[in-house]
Fold this protein.
Amino acid sequence: MRFFKEPPTLGAMLPPRLSLRRAFVADHFHDLPGFVEARHGHNWELEATVNLEENQTESMYAEALDAWVRGLDYTLLNEQPRLKGRNPTAEALAQWLMEALEDRGFSSVEARIREKANYWAACHRKSA
């Protein structure tokens, strides 16, 4: 067994990644040329992953997700100003979530939205 006087260095560390999930309930309908569906609801689920920087905490991240969910829970997605003129799909919600986290100062890695048990949409930034 070897003992070190000082702990070994691990080199440059990337910020920790944290993934959290939240659930919400919301209705939507589709009324676009070639894609029409009557109003219906889903039990949506989100999963988002961010890089936590030094000044950010898990509770700050959780509050950012909770605030986003509070704005959507038990609403008609078609009436959300952010989705005005857009088809309220899981893809649109994933993009909106990622942008909302970035607006709150988080470096988003990925935002995923589940519309149905077998249907997820993910959004992430293109690597530089």
User: Anything to note?
Assistant: Strands lie at 17-32, 35-51, 75-76, 107-116, 119-123. The chain has a mean pLDDT of 89. The chain is about 20% helix and 40% strand. The domain at 17-123 is CATH 3.30.479.10 (Tetrahydropterin Synthase; Chain A).
